[in-house]
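Re: folding output
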Amino acid sequence: FEVSTEAIVARITADAIKRAVRAASVDGADAVFVSCTNLRTVDVIDDLEDELGIAIVTSNQALAWDMLTSAGISTAQSAVPGRLSKT
């Protein structure tokens, strides 16, 4: 996105995030990793996974998954979106 100010990163739209993930998804990819804790990705993960047929993993999602699994809490019933929560 070529943005270095966190306050601006937080305002990147869901549509812009979706376009970027689609562009990063190449044939044969198993997943796309979206790195930036200020990107608002929670609402787009499930839609993109359904559309692209691959896992979408974000830094915040991975952190939530790791905290839950480290605490011995099942992620299957959590609010963590995406395929990652099913592991």
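--- second protein (sequence, then structure) ---
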Amino acid sequence: MKSIYTCLFLFACFTLLAQKQYTFDYMVEYKNFEGNDNKKQTKIPYSIYLTNSKNNSYLAELTEKDSLTYWVDFLDHNSTTARVTINKSDFKKTEFIHIKCEDVKKYSNPYKYQVNNYHFTTPKDTIINNAIFKTYSITANDLKRQQKKKTGTYLYIVDKETDFHLPIFQQATTFEEYKVERGVPNGIFTKIVFIDYLNKIKYHQERVNYLPIDKKIVIPADCN
């Protein structure tokens, strides 16, 4: 009997070593709109993010494929991307989302050098509907270069009551800048605004809800 327990223990250890597991403790839902108002939603009207409040080096975004299915776009900023589908009802019930090696791609941000061209602005207090939020943006150091390259600015409005959660950066350059500066406040964004090089708001995301969860993405450790 003792040898059976030993074998089971060794098998469990081997299984854990043979896979990489990403834990998510929050789910954040946004509505996506064109321009500055809420009249017209984008082609992807909703985005649901799975996040880890203590580790923002990875995240997963769920978008609607059809009435029954989600796309799941996973990103580990340091190593991996993957895209899979999951049935909506299965997603609600399951704790584990397993991704096969065939759906995994190695990832390395080719624009790390761009941290030399951008910076975060100093966070400021903003009052919206009698509530105080922190706001900051990531923008180009050289405005003339920004015009030439036709790059834009991301504006972040932070819910101060969610400072238990690290900021969630989907854009690779923004995450790399965050690793360098580390000077922005914690918190889940209540609104994200993209402003183009002509200083026009192209689109924005407004938070609908956030809630604690317990879900995991599992990827084989030996994916090449």
